[in-house]
Design goal:
Number of strands: 10
Bound molecules: NADP nicotinamide-adenine-dinucleotide phosphate
Distance between the termini: 51 Å
CATH architecture: Alpha-Beta Barrel
CATH superfamily: NADP-dependent oxidoreductase domain
Helix content: 25-40%
Length: 347
């Protein structure tokens, strides 16, 4: 880590990107082990997020997790243009975007990726994910009870048609890697069996109260990189994503104790744990101080093995982003989306 007055001449709120841990994907590409999330949870504006991207790049972030559905790629594109004008090269950045659920039809995949590229003002993406495995449209900000009349379950043959179009993006050089998100082991087994281009990463909810140990191990064993979303337990997530059973990892007494010991915010403990465990956390923040502290957390003062063990024991299987709007039948419970019985929930 570089701080003010060091030989690299960095300011106090800058960290040398070369000191940020990297993960190597099966292609040999290297990806920063932490990224900035860019979903404003319906209360942070696109303009504020563009400012957050610039602040993050200034302090040493090179990895940004975007998505068309976040509604801010055009503003982030403006920010990235400024970042590159300030001297950061395109190849030093890692930019992820995601295909939204109403664009799974093969003919829509290429157009959707091209729209993200044009909004982000880039000629290629480093990673493009299928955001959810369900081809169901629902309007942004809709209520948890909202259902599309055309709702469909996971249909593997259809997913593979979408995936073939994703593979075409790689062939055309529009994206370097493709990946999955919000998947389960039974679904991934089928994709791995049938894909020509293997997913390079799987983005999934991961924090100390939702560690998904089996899926995490499955993803790694099969040569994919786990990317952990909502790594802090998404404390400011929209109302629609809250239920009375939800717990908060940043309020867990064991995390608070470890945070006190290290003199950091509990959020930073969650980030340290995530990187040391091997997933790539993508914490969101619109606050430059938090943005900096999260990056500082992964370049200094690691957790001890004992602290890692203590956090491993905190898992509560507490999924926060349940995805209710993707349910396809009346009276279903959100667990149906996650194949909790070990097989794909029948249509
Ligand atoms: N693939 C998917 O389906 C999917 C689903 C959900 C999320 N994601 C991605 O994952 C990203 C992160 O998830 P998330 O936004 O749900 O939640 P999160 O990263 O777990 O939590 C973000 C919240 O934590 C606060 N925070 C951040 N750093 C902090 C610190 N050091 N101290 C105190 N508070 C801190 C932020 O508030 P301040 O702004 O005040 O710092 C922000 O409101 C998203 O932005 C998105 O890119 C992907």
């Amino acid at each position: 880590m570089q701080t003010k007055g060091t030989s690299a001449g960095k300011a106090a709120d800058q960290i040398d990107p070369a000191s940020v841990p990297q993960r190597t994907l099966y292609t040999g590409a290297r990806m920063p082990a932490i990224g900035l999330g860019t979903f404003g949870s319906d209360h942070v504006s696109a303009a504020q997020i563009a400012e957050a991207v610039k602040a993050a790049a200034r302090c040493g972030y090179r990895h940004f997790d975007c998505a068309s559905v976040y509604g801010n790629e055009a503003e982030i594109g403006g920010a990235l243009t400024e970042v590159m004008a300030s001297g950061v090269k395109r190849e030093e950045l890692w930019i992820t975007s995601k295909l939204w659920n109403d664009k799974h039809a093969p003919q829509d995949v290429i157009a959707s990726c091209e729209k993200s590229l044009s909004d982000l003002r880039l000629s290629y993406l480093d990673l493009y994910l299928v955001h959810w495995p369900f081809p169901n449209f629902h309007p942004p900000n809709c209520d948890v009870t909202a259902r599309s009349k055309d709702s469909k379950p996971y249909i593997h043959a259809d997913y593979m048609k979408t995936w073939a179009a994703m593979e075409e993006l790689v062939k055309r050089g529009l994206v370097r890697h493709i990946g999955t998100s919000n998947m389960t082991i039974p679904k991934l087994k089928l994709v791995l069996r049938d894909a020509n281009v293997k997913p390079a990463a799987n983005e999934m909810e991961l924090h100390p109260h939702f560690q998904q140990p089996e899926l995490f191990e499955f993803v790694r064993t099969n040569g994919m990189q786990p990317i952990g979303y909502s790594p802090l337990g998404s404390p400011h997530r929209p109302e629609r994503d809250r239920t009375p059973e939800d717990t908060s990892p940043t309020e867990d007494p064991a995390i608070l104790r470890i945070a006190q010991r290290h003199g950091v915010h509990p959020a930073v403990v969650c980030i340290k744990w995530a990187v040391q465990r091997g997933q790539i956390p993508i914490p969101f923040s619109a606050n430059p101080k938090n943005i900096f502290n999260n990056l500082l957390g992964v370049t200094s003062d690691p957790l001890t093995e004992e602290e890692m063990r203590q956090i491993a024991a905190l898992d509560r299987n507490c999924r926060l982003i349940k995805g209710q709007v993707f349910l396809w039948k009346e009276g279903q419970s959100w667990e149906a989306l996650w194949d909790v019985n070990g097989e794909i929930t029948p249509a």
